[in-house]
Amino acid sequence: MNLKETALYVFVAIGAGTCSLLIAGSSKKTGPDTSNWLPARKADLHAVPLSELPEKAPALESEWLANHWKTPVPAQGKKPSGWSTVETDLSPETCGVCHPSQYADWKESWHANAMGPGVIGQLLDRDEPDDGYAEICQACHAPLTEQHPFVQTTKTETDENGKKKKIISGEPNPDFDESLRSKGLTCAACHVRNWQRHGPPKSDDLEAVTTGPHGGFVPKSEYQDSRFCYRCHDFRPGKRSLNDKMIQETYEEWRRTKYAEEGVHCQDCHMPEGRHLFKGIHDADMVNKAFTAEFVLLSNEKVPDSIKADFTLTNTGAGHRFPTYVTPQVNLVIWQVDAQGEAIAGTRKMDAIARKVSPNISKEYFDTRLMPDESYTFAYSEKRHENATALQAAVEVWPDENYTQFYKLRIKNGPEMHPTTLPMMQEALDDSLASRFTAWEQRIELD
Ligand code: HEC
Ligand code: HEC
Ligand code: HEC
Ligand code: HEC
Ligand code: HEC
Questions:
Q1: Which domains does the chain have, with CATH numbers?
Q2: Confidence of residue 29 (pLDDT cuts 50, 70, 90)
Q3: pLDDT of the residue at 35
């Protein structure tokens, strides 16, 4: 791989139901975010497609869920008579008046950030009645009709060459609430249809509760099942895949784990005791629950001035591949340290646990993601520096790596953008860089 190749960053918007992803090619700089030279890439490692792994639980069919997740979620409609203004307000803050603990958790979650600068920054300059882009993205990021600026209809027309074309036409949405749009994945998107609340049952009783605020609620067991999360955390079968693996297939991964067999659902790990934190790759404690690290110095008597070490990570806690998406990069890093505890230049080597794909998602560079109980070993073998007194290992997590590269490109192409986009992309880039953290560290003293 020629490290001097020009940067090749491409923005890919892959049809309905997919996320916009930026995939890094090689860059001018040989800094750590050019990842194509990593040992995993050299060894051409590719995790197998899910079709090769046995299913441990059947895919749950639920007509109710299929209906529940038709997007955009229809407007709630006429307010029920006799309800107070707090009962007919969709904003999470108002739900929080009576459900303060769920609100406090949710507000800190990534679901509350689902229309952050990196997302809305890409949508504002496409807010036109005949542009369906925002609708695609908002199906997962902000699915309520009240969060959409336009009411749109799509019809298919055949042009003079017999080619089928999708024609989108839209009108300003009378129910549009701009401030609700920015709230992302709200309480109401998961819980409210036609003003009716739905939630997990309190016991085995699935009888609707018809008393109390907002006319009670309808209990649904689906809230405690992994399938509830499927709509947004997996792409539909038939959508674009690469090496027979979808770009997002978390539920399908989960179905092939021992957790599915044991009945441990997404909610058990991401909503313990019903808490609405939805912690994941951005949270150091959560990431530490995902893996066990082992760092061992190997003897190398034949070559006395060299250092060999094995750094092994095992997925001992993520209920799907670790990590599940193409977005994050989990780095295994090793370097030599001098008597002052300083890193010695030139001794730092790294590898990654990640799924790295090419610009148009036509090529997978490598895929070292780990299913539960799978391990990956990064072998360090370098000359021992004369000042080296210790060897240090770290697990460094870049939760937003693909987006980091994408925002850089958008900023580079700044002048072509909508004026509001540029500062948002800058903010998103800063956030994505600030989200990097060290999850684990260990130092071994050298004799
Ligand atoms: C099928 C559901 C789905 C659709 C459709 C979707 N996304 Fe996402 N998006 C996700 C999920 C899940 C994540 C978090 C995991 C990740 O980072 O890939 C995410 C993360 C992101 C992020 C990074 C996190 C952040 O908030 O900054 C951006 C930016 C983003 N999406 C933009 C888009 C855009 C633009 C579109 C429309 C072209 C889109 N997404 C469509 C599900 C979706
Ligand atoms: C991504 C979808 C999602 C969002 C967003 C969401 N919830 Fe929930 N909520 C759930 C699920 C799933 C459960 C069931 C959790 C369980 O029982 O394990 C639940 C449970 C509940 C319950 C039942 C009691 C409990 O805590 O288990 C209440 C009340 C509730 N949510 C209110 C809210 C409020 C208020 C908000 C916004 C501040 C909110 N939810 C946002 C999915 C969501
Ligand atoms: C005026 C106070 C009030 C407001 C405002 C309110 N709720 Fe409730 N909600 C309640 C009460 C009280 C219950 C019944 C709680 C119980 O039985 O534990 C309830 C029950 C629920 C349940 C069912 C919990 C379960 O056990 O399954 C859900 C879900 C829910 N609310 C969601 C919401 C959402 C979403 C909003 C905002 C759109 C909201 N609520 C606004 C008071 C309120
Ligand atoms: C309506 C779509 C939707 C549903 C349903 C949904 N999610 Fe998400 N989820 C998203 C989007 C979009 C993001 C990315 C948010 C962002 O861009 O900031 C996300 C992000 C996450 C993250 C990532 C946190 C991180 O650190 O990156 C976790 C964990 C998560 N969701 C868990 C769940 C679980 C568990 C469920 C089911 C109970 C669920 N989600 C249901 C849309 C959804
Ligand atoms: C046994 C516990 C467990 C179960 C079950 C589980 N997860 Fe996770 N999940 C984790 C841990 C730990 C992490 C943090 C490490 C990581 O990112 O893989 C995580 C991370 C995530 C992320 C962050 C993004 C990323 O690239 O990793 C998302 C999104 C997510 N989980 C969604 C889900 C969904 C949806 C389900 C159910 C289909 C689910 N999880 C089931 C433990 C679990």
A1: 34-47+280-445 (2.60.40.10)
A2: very low
A3: 52
